[in-house]
């Protein structure tokens, strides 16, 4: 089963959330619509600014755990490598 690690935010250099999912399009839709109570709903984290695909969900889970230990500046550098303008990538998924 494939998996994705992703980062959502509320605006450029705003609050960041790292998550993992087997279905990126569905999961980001849930964040955008506030369908899941918790951290992302509380802070309005609706913009997908970075993601990475893995062929095995277990690898995605490990990557998420590792990234959650990173310094914020490392996460920002990763986002800006893929998405320097911090575009919302949700509409580019399909």
From TrEMBL:
Pfam families: GIY-YIG. InterPro entries: GIY-YIG_endonuc, GIY-YIG_endonuc_sf, UPF0213_domain. Residues 1-77 form the GIY-YIG domain. SUPFAM superfamilies: GIY-YIG endonuclease. Gene3D superfamilies: GIY-YIG endonuclease. CDD domains: GIY-YIG_unchar_3. Belongs to the UPF0213 family. This is GIY-YIG nuclease family protein.
């Amino acid at each position: 089963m494939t998996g994705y690690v992703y980062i959502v935010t509320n605006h450029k250099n705003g609050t960041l959330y790292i998550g993992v999912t087997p279905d990126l399009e569905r999961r980001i839709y849930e964040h955008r619509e506030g369908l899941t109570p918790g951290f992302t709903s509380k802070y309005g984290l609706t913009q997908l600014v970075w993601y990475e695909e893995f062929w095995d969900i277990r690898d995605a889970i490990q990557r998420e755990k590792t990234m959650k230990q990173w310094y914020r500046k490392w996460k920002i550098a990763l986002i800006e490598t893929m998405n320097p303008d911090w575009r919302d990538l949700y509409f580019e998924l399909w």
